[in-house]
Every structure is written in structure tokens, then in C-alpha cells.
Amino acid sequence: MVRVLAFLFLVTAALALDPLPPERIQALAAYSNAHGGHALLIRQNGKTLHESYSNGHTQNEPHRIYSGTKAFWCLTAFAAEKDGLFKLDDHVADTITEWQSDQRRSKITIRQLLDFTSGLEPLFGLHQNDFKDRAAAALKAPLVGTTGKSFIYGPASLQVYHELLKRKLREKEQTPIRYLERKVLGPLDLGPQRYLPDPKGTPLLAAGFMQTALQWSELGSWLLKHEEIVSAFKPGNVNRAFGFGIWNNHAAESKSAREVDVEDTLDKKWHAQSWGNACLCRSAPADLIACLGSYGQRLYIVPSQKLVIVRLAKDSKPNDAQMLRLLFANTR
Q1: Is the distance from CB of 233 to CB of 243 less than 8 angstroms?
Q2: Could you tell me the pLDDT band of residue 331, with boundaries at 50, 70 and 90?
Q3: Dist CA 210 CA 201 (whole Å)
Q4: Correct CATH for 68-208 of 3.40.50.920, 1.20.140.10, 3.40.710.10, 3.40.190.10
């Protein structure tokens, strides 16, 4: 009887979802097309509401998702914690033992690497495919901010995380790439990705993956089924709109919410960035989370509406607030 009631509750909840108005979907599609859009996919409760490809692009064409890559690697941290490899609040120096003698580095936690509050210089040069040794450079990255109090977006912290995971997996005769494929990509029915290894074989964690709209949407659909993971994307204390490679719209429910152009803000030096009360769009649901990649690559997920939206593009000036307002204005 309990199982029957639970099933009926789920069915009722699914039927209660308000579908997005077709005219709003068409407005977003038109906007996307006019601003360099290549693909737009909208799925709600597992059903495709809209799928279109424009400006000469097709369904089966993979696109660079740039920083959308980060979330996949960050998911390995939750798998590793579940497997008992570490806890997110462990100190990095417990594994990266060469940091133990450094008074400041020894205080950095794994969580701070993944919410970008470690204080490490970003080292954007690590993005280069011919960088000789990403791990060595990241481990020696200068501490330019205050650990736990400075949000510094960039590849260095993620490359330190890769080295930590590599050392944790060594005794199990596994590699971080293989672990990613088994624990994250496999459950999403995704195969090996574009890892952009350096000459030492170390992949780039900050970018590199190429996926179709349908492939990237699988991450959104998977997260909708795993609320415990979504709730674990706890943002850092400095930038409450970001954590573990995922941006969020939580501040939208506050009267003091401030729409922020993420890419414009990230173009500034880290110490000149302002993230107080930041949200993506005041009109969009506060539970919206997103993966944001350069040039308008977007994966939006709205758990309360069982909604997944993927946009692939070559957009020199993506505007999250405007795009989301086209869908959600006056619907909250």
C-alpha cells in the first residue's frame, strides 16, 4: 500500500508540473539563433519540449563546452568521498605531503580547491596544450589570496585536486581518468572525453570536453535524479553563487539579489570581482543551477520544474539574465 501511495504521489507531482509556454520557448530559440546559437535543447520531466539546430550546425555535432568540463571532474570528489578515499574537509597536505611544512598551504582543504577559495594564483597558462608539467606548476602556484576568503577562478586549484586524486588512487592501481570514466561518465552513458593531456599525461580539468546537446543534457537529467548530489553543491563563503564547478541562482529569492554577468565579471582580476548577492537572473527559479562555458555554452537545470536546458553557441556576449527572463519572467 505504501509503495502504491508513493507511486501515485510521484505521478501526481509529475502531472502537476507547469509546462513552459510554447511562445516563451520560441522566444528563447529566436534569441539564441540571433546571437550565434548552434543548438537549443529543452527537456522537462524526461520529455523533449524543444530541439533545434541553427546557423549551419547539426544534432550529432560535438561542441567544446569549455568550463562545462569542470563539473564532471568535481563529481569525482563526491564519488571518492563515498568510496572512502577522503573527506571533502580533509587538508590537502594530508596527501600532498610536501605542503605540510608550508604554514599557509597546509591549511587548504579539498573543498576549498573545488570551490576556488584555496587562495592559489589561477595560472591560466595551464590551459595551454603544450604546457610541460601542469601538476608541478600547480603545486608551486603562489598563494596570492587568503585561503577561505578569496574566490579565485582558474585551473590551478583543479590541477592540485587531480594530483591529490592521483595519489589516492595509486594504491588501487587506478588513474583519475579511469576513475572519472567509471564513476561519472559511465553512469551518464558517456564514453572517454577530450582530456588535453600535457606531456606528462596530466589532463586539463578546467576545460576540454566536447559534447552534443543530447550528451550534455544527460548530466542534467542525472542530477535531477540525484537530489543528494545537487544539495551537496555547497557554494563557498566568498562566492555564494558557485561551488564544485556549478553556478546557482539561489540569491534570486532575496530582495537584494543582483544579476551578475558571470563572464564579464570573471574577465576582471580576481580581487576586482564582486559576488555579493549575485544571481544569474532574478526572474528565474532560485533553485536553478548551471554549468557555464565560454562563448555561450550553457546547461541550466531547474529541479523544482524537472527542467534541463542545453544551449551550444558561438556567442561573443552571452546574456544569462536575458535568456532566462525570456523563459521565466512573471512565472515565479
Answers
A1: yes
A2: low
A3: 19
A4: 3.40.710.10
